[in-house]
Amino acid sequence: MTILPPERPRTLYAKLWDSHVVREREDGSTLLYVDRHLLHEVSTPQSFVALDRRGLRPHRPAANLAVPDHAVPTRGRDKPIADPMARAQTARLVENVDRHGIPFIPLSDARQGIVHVVGPEQGFTLPGITLACGDSHTSTHGAFGALAFGVGASECGIVMAAQALAQRRARTMVVRVEGTPGPGVTAKDLALALIAQLGANGAAGHAIEYQGAAIRALSMEARMTLCNMAIEAGARVALIAPDETTFAFLEGRPMAPKGPEWDAAVAYWRTLPSDEGALYDREVVLDAGKVAPFVTWGTSPEDAIAIDAAVPDPEAVADPARAGRLRKAIAYMGLEAGRPIAGTRIDTVFIGSCTNGRLADLRAAAQVVRGRSVAPGVRALVVPGSGLVKAQAEAEGLDLVFTEAGFEWREAGCSMCVAMNGDRLEPGQRSASTSNRNFEGRQGRGGRTHLLSPAMAAAAAVTGALTDVRTLEAMA
Amino acid sequence: MSAPLIRLETRAISLPETNTDTDIIFPARFLLKIDRDGMDECLFRDRRVGPEGEALDHPFDDPALRDAQVLVAGPGFGCGSSREQAVWALVDWGIRVVIAPDFGDIFAGNAAKNGLLCVRLPADTCRTLAARADAGARFGVDLPARVLTVDGARVAGLDLSDAAVQAFGEGWDEIDVILNREIDEIRRFEDDHRARQPWLFA
Ligand code: SF4
């Protein structure tokens, strides 16, 4: 009898990876089976051209789910899309999914919304799967213990045609979040604090796994916020082990397994968490108890500071390349080095996106807004992440809290997160935004973006300036 | 199919900024295009053309650099959005090699599929190379020999597998590779996978 060596403890990432290996290639890459593919109108037109040019059909149409989100207007949905290019692109998605028999949620459907909100909501996202989407924030789905990663348009075509992709195994980074976040501190603040610590490309080549008591205590929405932002630290993949919170969120979702299959699935999902003693290539610790509400001052998500801190002073930075970058970012943002970031006047507030456009986010913002009004001269938008989020919020009366305070209440979509649909900043305008990227021009050419949490965005809306939400008295 | 890349020798453009994200390389509003024509005009658009349509001073509009096929960039080049348009635009303009300390992961994956070679070199080497590029040096890349030269002198080796050299040399077509050589294995895997996790195939 041969005695097998004891199995080496494996990480969640290793389990997900190993269970999808089709073939190891000679060049060191791995052909990985892809269970699920999410599509939107912007990243797939050229993918379908690649299929059609070769006369290819999707390998398994039911493994795909398409929904328009990036280019679609967030009001006037009863009329045709005004922008001819956005109209053509959305129509192209409809033609493509029609021709190829791909499951589709049209713009008129109550379930329409941002891919990364819709996938989990429908139970299309499940633990243990591989999921690809032509979108960098696909890391969001890792909150369910799924190996989910963003790909380019060519890879979208490959996934549709072959249900597999050649990938290279990432190194692993465990981020242990210890302690309890203080009042007013949310998953968004933890995400920004971590990106500031790691740098915008500091986790490149790594799959992040979040662990620790603070993570276990988070809702699925908060977990998604955290995984969503991992790409802003350069990590293509983020993971949180599935647990009771995950299962409770998924049970009964339209595309989640039912009956005996549900039980079998949960039994399998319980085997996924990293084994005791599994090794990671890097380990990072974040003390949630020491994190304040965060806000970005510059043009990269790594330019994040506590709301009670000051804009950094390039003169105090030794590395000339870094000092130069800071100077440029401060100039673009129209700020002054060394000045407190709190009190910076804003003229636009955007609450929404795949980072913070879920029901829990709208509730958190509404709690601050309730009984207050949007400051004079401020344009404030709430754009729910999906039609279902919008309906739930309306059932709770959140829409009235917002509209009575002077917010605009819109239809679901990406909206001002990427400014492709007409919702955008004008040059020089300054926003407090719950989205994920403060890149130059991201919210419109010349626009200046400060990233923050929904509660902080609400505080900015009612005061007209970047404000520490903890200093606002709770209103009844 | 990407255009073959075997060897080249040209001037190089330097853009030493940190974290040149794909929104800078290819602003989002041009993502509404549903074809791949005219990508080069969108490349670095908001750095090249001012709000009033005025030309800004940008190396991608310097006639002396119009034939450059090499870009020397700063750390974090291509971070951010997954848009493959960033790669298409660079290639469409004429860039075939980007040298940087590190790249956005998704950008690097997209680049390989389009015959754009990403070369990772230490940050101080990249700074030196940027200075050489600004001084008008000619950059040479020879894939079969796996070497990067500046004004004829070797500065670095290229870490490329035989398969990669071949793929760049013949033009890259990943869909065909997978469908021609690996689809049976995919099907076999799929059958086992279905047996293990039937709920994924309901
Ligand atoms: S909300 Fe923003 S980040 Fe999320 S998918 Fe849409 S454009 Fe991308």
UniProtKB/TrEMBL annotation, chain A:
Keyword Amino-acid biosynthesis applies: yes
Residues given in the record as [4Fe-4S] cluster binding sites: 354, 414, 417
Function description: Catalyzes the isomerization between 2-isopropylmalate and 3-isopropylmalate, via the formation of 2-isopropylmaleate.
Organism the protein comes from: Salipiger thiooxidans
Cofactor binding, per record: Binds 1 [4Fe-4S] cluster per subunit.
Region (Disordered): 425-448
Cofactor: [4Fe-4S] cluster
Start and end residues of each Aconitase/3-isopropylmalate dehydratase large subunit alpha/beta/alpha domain: 15-464
Catalytic activity, as annotated: (2R,3S)-3-isopropylmalate = (2S)-2-isopropylmalate
Key words of the record: 4Fe-4S, Amino-acid biosynthesis, Branched-chain amino acid biosynthesis, Iron, Iron-sulfur, Leucine biosynthesis, Lyase, Metal-binding
Protein name: 3-isopropylmalate dehydratase large subunit
Pfam families: Aconitase
HAMAP family per record: LeuC_type1
GO molecular function: 3-isopropylmalate dehydratase activity; 4 iron, 4 sulfur cluster binding; metal ion binding
TrEMBL record, chain B:
GO biological process: L-leucine biosynthetic process
UniProt xrefs under Gene3D superfamilies: Aconitase, domain 4
InterPro entries in UniProt: 3-IsopropMal_deHydase_ssu, Aconitase/3IPM_dehydase_swvl, AconitaseA/IPMdHydase_ssu_swvl, IPMI_Swivel, LeuD
Claim: Ubl conjugation is one of the keywords in the record: no
Catalyzed reaction equations: (2R,3S)-3-isopropylmalate = (2S)-2-isopropylmalate
Pathways involved: Amino-acid biosynthesis; L-leucine biosynthesis; L-leucine from 3-methyl-2-oxobutanoate: step 2/4
Role of this protein: Catalyzes the isomerization between 2-isopropylmalate and 3-isopropylmalate, via the formation of 2-isopropylmaleate.
Assembly: Heterodimer of LeuC and LeuD.
UniProt name for this protein: 3-isopropylmalate dehydratase
Source organism phylogeny: Bacteria, Pseudomonadati, Pseudomonadota, Alphaproteobacteria, Rhodobacterales
